[in-house]
Design a protein that fits this description.
With 190 residues, the chain is α/β, with parallel strands linked by helices. The chain folds into 2 domains: 4-129, Response regulator (Rossmann fold), CATH 3.40.50.2300; 132-183, no CATH class. The protein is 36% helix and 28% strand. It has helices at 13-30, 42-47, 67-77, 93-96, 111-130, 174-183; strands at residues 4-9, 34-39, 55-59, 82-87, 103-106, 132-136, 141-145, 149-155, 158-163, 167-170. The two termini are 28 Å apart.
């Protein structure tokens, strides 16, 4: 299992420290290898390569570029990122769904609620990484990590699986392929 990369973005240093200690506890108890990077503003987060993160835990209300504005920018280039918002005001929840927020946590989060929500997100991320599509090609059986699949299409009667590095012609049916990908909650964004 490779490292899961987490960004924590909150303008309150005490909250950042608390979240980092919670993540360390989760890492130890679940046996997950986590890499946590902290940011004190949406602007500083946007200066980094936000496509490198698997999970973003972000405050909604911050001076300058607030969490929702930063999430909109990030979502435009990173559709796979799981976003958990922290907020003092639940009325922001509706706006958060515009950027496909995974969950919302009220501030300050206690460890039990935080670990339940983040633990579930990390479990889903881990299983997504372990998801494999097995297909028949002309000469062999290929195993493709689902996380590398960009999209699947039919072309001249064959299923074409497009990954981030190659296109593979499959002799499996589109129905079989769809059933497997749907079981992994595969959903390409266009």
């Amino acid at each position: 299992m490779s490292v899961l990369r987490i960004a924590v973005c909150d303008d309150d240093s005490d909250i950042r420290e608390t979240l980092c200690s919670y993540l360390e506890r989760i890492s130890l108890s679940a046996g997950l290898e986590l890499s946590v990077t902290c940011f004190d503003s949406g602007e500083n987060l946007l200066k980094e390569d936000h496509t490198a993160f698997d999970l973003l835990i972000m405050d909604i209300q911050m001076p300058g570029n607030d969490g929702l504005a930063a999430a909109r920018t990030i979502r435009a280039s990173n559709e796979q990122l799981t976003i958990i918002f922290l907020t003092n005001y639940i009325q922001y929840a509706l706006e958060g769904y515009e950027v496909q927020a995974y969950r919302f946590l009220l501030k300050p989060p206690d460890y039990e609620k935080f670990s339940a929500v983040v633990g579930k997100a990390l479990t889903e991320l881990k299983s997504r990484r372990e998801a494999i599509l097995t297909i028949r090609t002309k000469t062999k059986i290929s195993r493709i990590p689902v996380e590398h699949i960009l999209y699947v299409e039919t072309y001249k009667g064959h299923v074409m699986v497009h990954t981030d590095t190659e296109t593979i012609e499959s002799f499996s049916s589109m129905k079989e392929t769809e059933e497997v990908l749907n079981s992994y909650l595969f959903c390409p964004w266009f």
